[in-house]
Each structure stands twice: as structure tokens, then as C-alpha cells.
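re: that chain from earlier
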Amino acid sequence: MATLRIAIVGGGAAGFFAAVTAKARRPDAEVIVYEKNSKPLAKVAITGGGRCNLTNSFEQVDDLKQVYPRGDRLMRRLLHHFDHRDCWAWFEQRGVPLVTQDDECVFPQSQDAMSIVGCLLAEARRFGVQIVVSCRVESLTPLTDGRLRLGFQNGRPEEFDRVAVTTGGSPRGDGLRWLAALGHEIVPPVPSLFTFNIADRQLTELMGTVVEVAISIPGTKFRAFGPLLITHWGMSGPAVLKLSSHAARHLSELAYKAQVAVNWVGKLSRREVETVLQSFVLANPHKQTGTWNPYGLPSRLWHYLLQRGGLATGKRWSEVGKKGLNRLVETLGNDVYAVDGRGTYKEEFVTCGGIALSGVDSNTLESKVVRHLYFAGEVLDIDAVTGGFNLQAAWTTGFVVGRHIVD
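^ sequence. v structure.
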């Protein structure tokens, strides 16, 4: 019986997981990972600020749509085969102890992404997965016998029985052209995890300030809750990243020139903000506006918000009239800023878009267009908010492909 030849195009998280899973199920198969860069797993090495936020406890996830703006229905199905608990067990069984932070993010106990990279490389070596680096695939041709021919930028074509494409997100769409040429529908890729550039010097002078907020895009349904970090270029933090993820395509269409509204007191409604402030003023009429605030906001931020509301920091609360209080309530609960471009989140880059999910089998992730061709990872139109959910999608889709590609 001829040896089953499998090519994995892309040496990232999904690619390695697919390769190791396939080789574990079919030790006699020849599995080759092709990576265009000089080192595999480069993105895994920098994720989570170099600590590798590899999954999440999902304890605070009521609906997958919260964390997977695109691809939630498919992920719901696939997670039955390999979820965050399976991920935890997989790495711990291979000598990588994990820890869950208070925010439910899961990291290696070492707090070093190289623990994860090293584990994946060791498993690939253990099972005999071949790794070829600095090798770019440029074409795929289906043959009449069901095999697939890969064309490379440098080197002779190779023929395989099965091919999995795990090339990750492609912000310019360059890496998707040869797949589109085969007849696959491509959802145009755009960035989906980024920070906001805001040209407000007084705001950016507060860099390093973190506060729990609600942030939204006026006139849309896009809204997020969580910590907001003021930076020297504008706004970052989990709340901003969630909003950028859910509104990725909307913001792209606006060329990242948009307005965002910040509720600096979290989930309190305008009426609740007003009630708290009025009660505070009645109880503390002789206190100064700049030294006492009822919301527990950082002092520097409070002074900034008073200024935006047109109130002097040296006034007594009893001297602030109804109009002044109304302006402050509006500033606290609906503070509008102009976004003037986007920044990246640390060194990570996530895109939405890719291979349309309608073009793949939802059970096996095999292409409906080309037999024996599979997809895993961010090359699919699946993306998530920050918190370990994107890597969980890589492990899950890689596992599913690795299991079915050898059948």
C-alpha cells in the first residue's frame, strides 16, 4: 500500500496541531509542514506579549457570538470535538503546566510562549513530522487521480494525497489568490483587533490610566464593556479591542475615521449616573469638585472629565448649577471622541475574512470545491476577541483537520 502523503501549508498553531494530530492517527503517513518564513510558530512566540495566552476558561462566555464575531456557529459545532478543556489536558500531558488568570485567560505557568512553541516542535519531532522553512507555496492543481500538486516559488512541484492550508490571516489578501483561482469564495480580509488613534493631547497625557468603561460607536449596535487603557496615542485595553473586533468591517469601510462614545462609569445608565451625582451633591455640598467624586475614578481622569464638562476643579458642589451638572452627566456617560486611524495590539495582527465558511464542510473542514483539500486556523473566516479565543480556534480547527485528513 502506497504511503499517504500529506502537505500542511503554513507552520503556525493550526498547521502544527493538524500535522501532529494527523501523524498521531496515521504514523505511517508522510506529513510535511511548509512554512514561508525562516522560523515556524513565529506568531505563537509573540502572542500574549510573549507569554502566550493559549486559550480561555470560557467561564464568562454566555454566547460564543460574544467572543467569535465571525464563525461562532461553526466554532460551536467544532468545540464539541476539541475545546478549552481538551487544550488544557493536551499541553499538561506533554509537560507544560498551565494557569488561569483572574480574567479567565490561560497561560503556561512559565509565562513564556516558548514553552508552547517548544512543546509543539517536540511533538512534531517525536512523530516524525517534516518541517520545511523558507518555502512559499504559490499554486495548487487538482489532478485527475484525486491527488493535489503544489507549486512553490522556488523548487519543483510536489504531489500529495491530501493538503491542508493553514496560512493564517492575510491582511492584503495576497496569500488567498491561488485559493480564489480554484473557485473558493474569499471574504475580503480586514484587520480585526486594533487600538484607536485619538488626537487629544489632554487625553493622551493621562496615558497609563485604566478604568472600567462601556464604549460604543454612536448610531450602531456595536458596544463593548471592560477595562480601557489610555495610551500615548489614544485608547487601548480589552474594551477597545473587543469593540474593534466586532466592528472590524464597519470601521474598515469608514477608513478608521469614526466616533466612539465612552461611558466612563461602566454600565450605569444616564439616569443612574444622574441619580448618583445628585445624591452626592446633596450629601456633600461644601466639598470641592476636584477633590471628591462619587464614582471612584482616578483623580487625574476626574479632573480631565470636569474640564471637558466645563466645570472648574476648585468649585464647591453647591456652586454647580443644574446646567453644569447636566453637562457633567453627559460627559461621564456619553463622552464622544473622534477616532483618527488604528494602531496594532502589541505585535499581534488578527484579520477577519478569508475562506468563506459556506465553502467548507462543517464537520471535516474539507473544501467543497476541491476534494482532499482542507482548511484550518485564521485562513478561514473565523476570528475572535482578545483573551485566548483565536488560539483556541487554531487548536480546534487544526485538531479537526488532523483527524479527518487521514481518513
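The mean pLDDT is 95.
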